[in-house]
Structure formats: C-alpha cells, structure tokens
Amino acid sequence: MNQDTLLSIEDKVISNALKIRFYPMAVASAHGTRLMDEAGVSYLDLSAGWAVAGIGYGHPRIAHQLKKQYETISFTSQLTIPEKNMVGLAQKLIEITPGSFEKKVWFGHSGSDANDCVYKLWPLVRNRSRLVSFMGSYHGQTMGSLSLSGHPAQAKFIGHGNVVKLPYPNPYRPPFGETQALTSQVISYIENELFRTICPPEDTAGLIVEGIQSDGGLIVPPDDFLPELQKLCQRYDISLIFDEVKVGMGRTGKWFSFDHYNLAPDAVVVGKSLGAGLPISAVIARKELLDAGFGVHMFTASGNPVCSIAALENIAILEEERLIENAAENGAYFLKLLEELKQRYEWIGDVRGRGLAIGVELVEDRSSKIPAAEKTAAVCYRAFELGMLVFYVGIHSNVIEITPPLTISKQEIDLAVSILDQALKDLENNNIDMEKVRQYAGW
C-alpha cells in the first residue's frame, strides 16, 4: 500500500488519543537498528520505539523462541494455571535486582499497570495513605500511574489527591535557583517543608523516583542525590520505589540506573524493553509489599507464556551479547561527540545522560535558557528527512531524546551525529520547511 494512502486511512480510523507524531512515516519492516518505511526507505532509529527495542528489531533468537512457545503453549492465564516461563522469569528478575531481603514479582502488560500496582498496593499494605513522586515524572496513563506522574502529558486530568509531588533536582534548571548543594536543598525541602506541612512521614507509604527522569527531559540528578534519597526513606521508614521502565534493563550501562550508586530499593518497576517488543511489565519488590492479598491487582494475560519467554530470552541476549557493556562504552562515545557538537551550536544548551539514555536540550540562547521547542521539533523533522528517526521529550518539549537499541555501533553513532549536525546547520540556514514541521505537534 502507498505510504500516503496508509497514513490517510490510519488518520480516519485510529483515535487521536493514541497518537504522538513527529513526521509522516509508516513503518513496513525493521531489523537491528533500522526501520524501513512503506516506500522502501531505510532509517537509522535513535528511539528504539520509545526505548522498547532494547536489543534491536527482529532478533532471530526471539523469533525462534516465540514460534516454539506458541506452538507448545500459546496461552494460559497465569492467575489460575501457571507454567514455567513466568516462574523462571520471576526468578531471573529477582537474581538481577539487588537486595538481600526476600522478594517477589508481580507481572503486568506495561509500565502504566505496573506503576498502578505500586499506587494501589503500597497504601493498602503499609496502612499509610500518602505517596510521594516528582514533578516532571512520567509513570503512566492509567489513573493510578497518572496520579503518580508530574508530566504535562497527564496535566489535563485530575489525579487522586493522596500523591504529593516534589521538585526534581535538575542541575541545568535547578528548582530553587541554585546549582550548589542541589541535593541538600531538595532533601531539606522534603524534611523541613513537605513532611512538616502537608505530608507527614508517618502517613507516607512510599516515594517513587526515576533514576534518570526520562520523558521529563533525560535529566540526570547530582551523583549524591539518589543515595541521600534512600537514606531519607530509611530514616522515616518510607518505601523507596524506582521506576526503571525506560532506563532499566541495561540502557544506562548497568542493569538499572540505581546500580551506579550501589543502592537496593524496596521495589523496582520495569517494562518497555523487558519483553523485546512484546508487552510485559513487572514489579520486583519486598515480599511483604506484594503480598497484599489474593487477586487485588490482576490481569488475565499477565505473565503469559509467550511474553514471558520473550523476556527470558531478552535477558539472556543482554548478558551473552554483552549489550550492557556496549551501552556503557558506546554511550560514553556518543556523549563525547555530542559535547563536541555543542561547541558548534549556541542552541545546544545542555548534553546529558548515562549509557544510551541521552538528552540534548535546545534553547534559544544559553544565557536565558529559554526552551526552543519549535527548533527542537524542526531538528527532529529534518533528521527524519535525512534518514534518521529521533523524538523529543521534556516538560518544555525541547529535549532531543536519544535511546537507540543497545546494539548500535560506533559507525552508526558517527552517522547519527553527522545527521544531527546537518539538521542543525539546515535550521541555522533556514533550510527547513517550518510549515511541514508545524503539522506535527509531537508532545
């Protein structure tokens, strides 16, 4: 089918509530780090489908396991009649998650329902009504996960009132105006303001945080922040929950973002890349936190055998093909080249990230730091025209998100940076059709 025809039909039959679009493309096939459109044009993909395709597209080992599994047991509702794949996956997730305490695993379909698990179970189990999260956070689209979120994407909806949101320690845009001692400012705010006024610690069940705030703009907090946050939670007997849906499963160069600090949180939420493209999510947590009672948060297809075997094989591929090490090494290489690119363009206000979770923040100028949302959309659109797929995120819609498959090579990184360079140069020379750009609102 002609690509324009397909997009026209799609526009008529698919709900706008299900769309975030940056350019006119319909994908026909995908392999490795490349997507091919209906017209046969190949694109280097820096998005991995919002970080889902962690091991790339169409991995033959996954394809083999899916066919074999579907022919053996295509489905069983693990709620009632379990089989070995879900059990084996739970054992593996417990093994790779730190903490010497006894753990269990809950399974769902997406980061949203997994964070909904946290929202529902923690107040119930701990007999404390309140939860704490961060401004700029993105935890999902269901009502519980939406309530935990602090992102403009959910701002049109009124979430539940038992969640209190804190400023996230953004070194580039410090919430209290000072970059010095940013961690102590936030920790002090929690203890001396939040806990003493509207959110008593004895009534607070848990605090959920992203180790790198992803859709909020790929924000990496100061190195001392997450360790100090864990100490704070321990002081007040508050559960510390890490949302690793987007940056977990090896993307930062370790299994999880908190592994860079040798932390052992009470709960870890994973999704997106866990299933190598198939829908599966999980919460790995202290046993007592997930044993709230039978059937209190369940979905018929949770942990189904096909998705579970995909996740098991995905983890094996990450380990055996050394993709986590690749993310660390090539992520550092990518950041180095982007820092060099930053020196050539005043619009690049900040380059940040860890491993292959990287953000490039565009501003009108570095002194004012005014977010350059339209310029960001233009760079992403022009990159598409030049043969590369990249999205933008951030509460100001001005951060280019770089989350490629962990299989990306240095040669592909060189190509990616050259395309970004050309896109920025074309923007500088007014060689981008802004009317086309404005048709695609993205966020």
UniProtKB/TrEMBL annotation:
Pfam families: Aminotran_3
Matching PROSITE patterns: AA_TRANSFER_CLASS_3
Keyword Lipoprotein included in the entry's annotation: no
Signal peptide: none
Gene3D superfamilies noted in UniProt: Aspartate Aminotransferase, domain 1, Type I PLP-dependent aspartate aminotransferase-like (Major domain)
Keywords: Aminotransferase, Coiled coil, Pyridoxal phosphate, Transferase
GO molecular function, one term: transaminase activity
Coiled coil: 410-437
Domain of life: Bacteria
CDD domains with a match to the protein in the record: OAT_like
InterPro entries with a match to the protein in the record: Aminotrans_3 (IPR005814), Aminotrans_3_PPA_site (IPR049704), PyrdxlP-dep_Trfase (IPR015424), PyrdxlP-dep_Trfase_major (IPR015421), PyrdxlP-dep_Trfase_small (IPR015422)
Family per similarity comment: Belongs to the class-III pyridoxal-phosphate-dependent aminotransferase family.
Protein name listed in UniProt: Aminotransferase class III
